[in-house]
């Protein structure tokens, strides 16, 4: 018989931390904490396999489930000394969802399940506290009504705020037992009027209702969106945890809180968290009351006059500190904890590896390696390479003038500028039009995920450091300022007011998630640099990696950035980018319009000194590191004007006949430019272009070599070769120029000639090509286009559909298609190496900066990857991780 239910409690558990796939993250860790002997209320986990079964069988449960749940429930009762549904010894439970990966799109937890009009009285008698009992009941109706019965929680909020206002109360804790009883009555009436039937009184009906709601929530639109964004497979399913309640709302000796074993924002090694006295569940993160600090140190630093947990409940605090330390060293990672104190007794309700900013991730990894808790290789592998992107983004220039309009909490670091939007749909819409927006909300909820994704940054007027906005923004690496309480948002008017100033939708503001400041207008930003823990991790990564990392760069600015980020050379210098500035494009157009070779040579002669100067500068910046220069690649018509008006303008400026220019433009028109007259085909038609470029490269190499004293060994790359004889033809030109320049300058020039492998034919004939090629650089952008027969520029209209319908898993232009494109790469690597021992192998497509593709590059044994300058640190880290995993 299949085991669908796993129990935990009383120092024992049927599951363990490694059962995450089966029990979900929450269930597996509850089991683990139990086995560690920590105080965990007893409970059981219904496995993810039940979820899978449920969807595979028309939303029906396995036959044995009910009996197994009943058995487990009895066991929980035995440990707790209570019985579910029995008013004499009342057992209440929580029903909590828990997927393998924590998923904000899932059903919210239902607490206090098992209460009804009868048992609430029993609870009151049992606890000797009617206020507590009715507070619990109204919470239950609200949560159950919202997440199981599908009533909008606003329905209840409205009643509650009316009742509060009517009595002139500020906070919920002011309600008396009788007043809560009235609220309960109103809630129940409302449920009945909305649904046409009364609130369910039978505890078993309540329990199965909640279990069903968790499984159904797996397929709700929020969860589906979240999974799509995070590439979580649909078939993972969620588990359901049912657990005996403990109560943080039993008066002033009770409390509930959340904590991180280290600071999730900075990584500092200090217990960090918040709690509320006489509260339950998510009150702390819901921002209803302002939470208090856990430690005295944090309280002092925050300048808060509300006492810390350390002060008000020293014993429970001490127990908690001990457990926090134990869990951190057990899991060997920073933990995110949930706890409740019931009348002085501490209970643990959750532990998991805590989400953290990239900055904190780096500090924690470095610190833990230095503490000896983890190895350096583990530290390197703990950092998500893609997350480094956040640190490679601008921060506000300290010298900039700040026109401050409000201050909130520094909830997620980094700065962002954008136009104000007030709803997530607006955010998505405007970002879709290419606008940068700041999402401004009173508070965010899981419904806002798409808007938060679209926005540059998030600003909320309510909520603390652990509010939804703060937690999700940190996970996404987006700047966030939360709880900017002096801001007033008026959704209906579409305005935000602060200190007497009013801002409307579309106005530009800047938020500084590192200080919590909200500033009017755009503010100058500083470019990032590698330092501190970041550079430590990078240096550890460099010790571990085998592949070199180069950058794709052609401008001095890019080359300097790449160099400062640790690039070990240039893997792709696209020479055509050098021809687009005003003065040069003129000479270029002259060249293209020439009727004869001698005219063409005259125009090229004008370009030569400019190209040479560019190369000298690049060689100097790269100071002896290898530089791969690709000969002219795009079809010539890209350099010519488009449209009558532009043609007339250019013709006038160049002093040529507009008609001739138009005809030439027309004659260069191609139906399929991607497969047209480009790449080495240009050099074969017009050898003088390749000659000029080769000369510029060699002369620059000599000049830069003399200037810096470091010999320059340029690598000349011939694009779009498909036939070995194409390469041989162009190589002969290059070699010839090299000989001439050596004679003229009296200098020996060392250089390599190689090719891009970007056509299937080239990959299949790599052996022949390697006879003339001293290196291959896989141009995987074109190779992907030509392998799939898909034009990247036109793929947008259907690739998303393909992904949506599960035809392909990843966009092959983002993550290298290992099965197809990768197969060609493998063939070329094997044939190339067989034909020429030591042929240098690299990759220079977008994939060179994509961590998943870098894993493949390591697997096939490339010598280097080349990527855009800002991705160099990401590639260095990803290459190190790939090497570790292969080892
Ligand atoms: P989430 O996944 O959103 O964190 P949880 O299932 O962890 O949801 O629960 C939400 C809140 O309810 C948390 O604060 C948690 O500590 C609290 N909670 C859950 N189960 C219990 C319980 N059995 N007793 C007391 N509080 C609980
Ligand atoms: Mg929740
Ligand atoms: Mg939780």
Structure description:
The chain folds into 4 domains: 50-244, Dna Ligase, domain 1; 255-353, D-amino Acid Aminotransferase, Chain A, domain 1; 394-526, Glucose Oxidase, domain 1 (3-Layer(bba) Sandwich), CATH 3.50.30.10; 545-635 and 670-886, Phosphoenolpyruvate-binding domains (TIM Barrel, Alpha-Beta Barrel). The radius of gyration is 33 Å and the shape is elongated. Strand 12 and strand 13 (345-353) form a beta hairpin. The strands form 7 sheets. The protein has an 8-stranded mixed sheet with strand order 15-25-24-17-18-19-20-16. The chain has an 8-stranded parallel beta barrel with strand order 27-28-29-30-31-32-33-34, surrounded by 7 helices. Helix 5 (130-147) packs parallel to helix 7 (177-195), helix 22 (597-622) runs parallel beside helix 26 (687-708) and helix 27 (724-745) packs parallel to helix 29 (766-772). It is an alpha/beta fold and 887 residues long. The relative contact order is 0.06. The structure holds adenosine-5'-diphosphate (ADP) and magnesium ion (2 copies). Residues 108-109, 282 line the site of one magnesium ion.
